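Here is a protein:
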Amino acid sequence: MLKVDNVTKYYGNFLAVDHLSFEVKPGEIFGLLGINGAGKTTTFRMIMGLLDATEGSITLDGKKIDYDITDQIGFLTEERSLLTKMTVKEQCLYYGVLKGMKQNEVLKRMDALLEKFGIQEYREKKIKELSKGNQQKIQFLTAILNQPKLLILDEPFSGLDPFNVELFKQEIVEMASKGSMIIFSSHRMEHVELFCKKLTILLKGKPVIEGYLQDIKEQYRKKNIFIKGDINAEELREIQGVVSVEEHADELEVKIENNDFVSNVFEKVKMKKNITKFVVEEPSLNEIFVSKVGESFER
């Protein structure tokens, strides 16, 4: 288990991370989110043992993280960290040996992953000759070569089309099913919702939302109703409890204060003809994120 316990990090007088605590158990995919400058990268670097915490502790399976343990960690950074003049094979050997793997182990694992991701023809190509999306595949591949116990993914889907996002998703889920602990960070909230049952959202280094995603959605009382049919948006805006009505291409999205006002909207809608859709949904994580971070900035 990864345990981040009451961790604080100062750079001089600047407070980058403020009493952060969370746990990631084997098989869990944990979301660590926040706007730029929220403290995510500093947290990742402390987990990797690249920075020391000012206060608090970080342990993996009860041990302080040092160079003996970092071989069990994989890290995909948001920035490109590939050596572009190397070939794919050379790059994999370089990172694999750094992680304590033998050359034959690296090559066997590399070939399996290249085939899995449909890029085996790039084995002898230089990194700089690859497209942005294929470079991201190689960066991901080098992060998981050693089948890490802990995998940190910072914006893993950058530069990928939907087909390749699905490939990455399948691999991440498979790794979790085999017991890897995974920390997932992205500005794309819909990607976070694909994986993470548990998450923390940071603002200025401090957690402003934390817990299980389903509990977070239930605590955020506003709900959304999607309606398709012959009804005027203005009629809906006049109903008590309706916060806003957004007009989409072929449906209306009605935001209400909480579940208590669903019946108010339903009573209005049921009198109309040709209503083909009336669906009440939980708010998206993106909606909660924007609302909570916005509220925090206003204080």
